Amino acid sequence: MTQQGFLRARRPEHKRQRREAILDAARELAMRDGVRAVSLGGVAAAAGLAKSNVGRYFGTREEIYLELAAEAWQDWGDEVGERLRDAGDVEDIVATLTETLAARPLMCDLLGNISTSLEHNVSVESARSCKRVVLRVIADLAARVAAAPSGLTESEGFELVGMVTMTAGLLYPVSNPPPVIRELYAQDPAMAAACPPFLPTLKRMVTAVALGLPELR
């Protein structure tokens, strides 16, 4: 949509369309280039808006990505919650938590950027909105983990779900390095061998925590 078309929009549904266009543009750019590489100006251009017009809907690029993070958390929580209904043991629970994250590279990228950058240039209300979603999803999944044959309490389920997402955020950028590091690895296979594969590493670490939590009671 052209900038002129957006400027003529006045109705509530048109404003919702603008907001969704901004989020869609930011999502597509992040999936293509990575969250860190996307600027507010880039989002505005991709959405067909002037940069100043984006500011009417989101104060900063970080607020855009916090909203996308909240959406990603809710989407992930919905799928995990549904899959946990059929979990038969700890192995099934770990597979559900980790495989669904591995299938969501944008969420993993967002997880890796939330505490390091996305929470540093936002309003309190924007931060509150995102945190509410995150805590609600973790609490819901914790209850489902405890209800499954996991041997874990609800509080331990809360720790486990929180740990898997934090670990995914830390591990994802290491397992998916930037171009310079990929070139380095191509030149030095021995060094490349130390780069941890995302899903197997995440699954192993989460399994260790899931099995270890009851031992710490």
From TrEMBL:
InterPro entries assigned to the protein according to its UniProt record, in alphabetical order: Homeodomain-like_sf, HTH-type_TetR-like_transc_reg, HTH_TetR, TetR_C_34
Gene3D superfamilies cross-referenced by the UniProt entry: Tetracycline Repressor, domain 2
Residues covered by the HTH tetR-type domain: 16-76
Segments of the chain annotated as binding DNA: 39-58
Any matching Pfam family: TetR_N
Keyword annotations: DNA-binding
Record's protein name: TetR/AcrR family transcriptional regulator
Organism listed in the record: Sphaerisporangium dianthi
High-level lineage: Bacteria, Bacillati, Actinomycetota, Actinomycetes, Streptosporangiales
